[in-house]
Design goal:
With 131 residues, the chain is mainly α. It has one domain. It has eight helices and no strands. α2 packs across α4, α2 packs parallel to α5 and α4 packs across α5.
Length: 131
């Protein structure tokens, strides 16, 4: 029986950090075109790099998990993960890291997403607080 490990699958998705960066940038532009249309491409790359660093600091390593996390930073708030209930769900060791990000939509009620979104601060992307 042929067994393909997750790390092998990940290499097909993104072979390097540059591949992850490109993948996430493309996903952000497609998913949040209205929000990022006025942002210069190099600035967007810088913002996505910041998001990738934040996702990795939360324990995300798989390209698709990082992409989801960064997309939520753009769509909801760059600090969405600091909302107490969202943070609790992201830190829940009863689930794998990948399951935690995927389950957010099911585990977090709309009202809490709205609370997190209300804290959107565009300045986050342009100062040292995001690092």
């Amino acid at each position: 029986m042929l067994v393909i490990r997750d790390s092998q699958i990940q290499s097909f998705i993104a072979k390097s950090d540059d591949d992850v960066l490109r993948l996430v940038c493309d996903a952000i532009v497609k998913a949040n075109h209205g929000r990022v249309a006025a942002i210069r491409p190099l600035r967007l790359v810088s913002m996505v790099q910041l998001g990738i660093e934040r996702a990795k600091s939360r324990g995300f390593a798989r390209a698709e998990d990082i992409a989801i996390f960064v997309a939520l930073m753009f769509e909801i708030s760059p600090t969405f993960d600091t909302h107490p209930m969202i943070s609790t769900a992201l830190d829940d060791t009863n689930f794998s890291v990948s399951d935690r990000i995927v389950q957010l939509a099911e585990r977090i009620p709309d009202v809490l997403w709205l609370e997190a979104e209300a804290g959107y601060d565009e300045k986050f992307w342009f100062n040292d607080e995001g690092k």
